[in-house]
Amino acid sequence: MQLVICGMHRSGTSLVASVLRESGLDIGEVDYGPGLGQPRGHFEDLDFNDLHEAILAAFGRSCFTADEATLGKVDSAFEAQARALVAARADRPFWGFKAPRTCLFLELWDRLLPQARYLFLYRHPVDVALSLWRRNIDFEVRRDPWLAFRSWEL
After folding, report:
1. What whole-number distance in Å separates Cα of residue 91 and Cα of residue 42?
2. Is 99 left (phi over 0), alpha (psi -120 to 50) or beta?
3. pLDDT tens digit string along 95-108?
């Protein structure tokens, strides 16, 4: 069984992923290590995160600038990479991943992981925006603070 942890940045996904990892969920090769606003780490599977970033970059977008036109659009080369990620974990009885950008690619993951369970975390958009602004490390959000709300809405 697979568990996919989804939620907007700054919504508690790292906390939940860390608890699930401590409870025995295999969440793969994780992390960037501790960082501003994440003293214990992000608990993101780097393979999934890198794939999502590459898909967005192919459109000239980021998680903050993605739009309806790019939502869910994944070309065959990226889908093949996603299939390889799933295949590499196929022998694990209970695994999952946390990557906030997953919310932008739910159609892809639902196709590739039809038996997966999803855990969606919700945090009010004002709280998300305030947390992003306080953290102050996302260039795009510093340049256009309303991106925090637009990306939450998407």
Report:
1. 25
2. beta
3. 988 887 888 899 99
